[in-house]
Amino acid sequence: MVWTSSSAIHLQINRNDVFAVNRNHAGSQFGPVDYCGGIARIVVDVGGSPFVADGNTFRQRLSLETAECVIEGHKLNVSCFVASFADMLILEIDDQRESPQPLRIRCSMLREPEVRTGEHVARSAFAENTDRVLLTQQFQEQDYFNASAVAVALSGGPASVEKPSAGERILVAPAVRGRRLVLISSAAT
Questions:
Q1: Nearest CA-CA partner of 99 in 53, 55, 46
Q2: What distance in Å separates the CA atoms of residue 37 and residue 111, rounded to the nearest whole number?
Q3: Among 141, 92, 90, which residue's Cα sits nearest to residue 118?
Q4: pLDDT tens digit string along 108-126?
Q5: Who has greater pLDDT, 33 or 76?
Q6: How far apart are CA 69 and CA 111, in angstroms?
Q7: For residue 185, what is the enclosing H or E element?
Q8: What class is the 2-188 domain?
Q9: Which tens digits make up the pLDDT trace of 56-101?
Q10: Where in the chain are the domains?
């Protein structure tokens, strides 16, 4: 899912092979819910307000034919697409503003780092890394196990990782005029 605010592109990364529970789940209907494939929330904040919907400089289009979402803002355009050759979601950001802002890519867990309901346990954790964000989650109940991972990186330049809380990491890159690629990949077992 992709949507915008005035300064950012918001994404929820989902997979159709991630399930918190299976058909033999022992909890009541009010026990743990199946999290419906969600694995991470990502916000790509470009700074300023290039995506203000003023009718003249903001447009957002989704092409089912090319599987591409194009976001056009004030001197800042973004193309979101899945590269089938690499099984990767790519955001190509072209920032032509006179004063570009630092890029801040926030990756958030969808729940607390550990949630227990009866025998069901949902765990999420960040792996330590200095130039990319890696988030894993696991669901376990008796013999049932399902896990996923998402990695977020920036191509073509330096980046650092901030740790504002247990549930989120922020990949920070300096302001650059021109094109940059944000690379998002996921896997499940």
A1: 46
A2: 13
A3: 141
A4: 999 999 998 888 899 999 9
A5: 76
A6: 27
A7: strand 178-188
A8: mainly beta
A9: 788 889 998 888 999 999 999 999 999 878 779 999 999 999 999 9
A10: 2-188
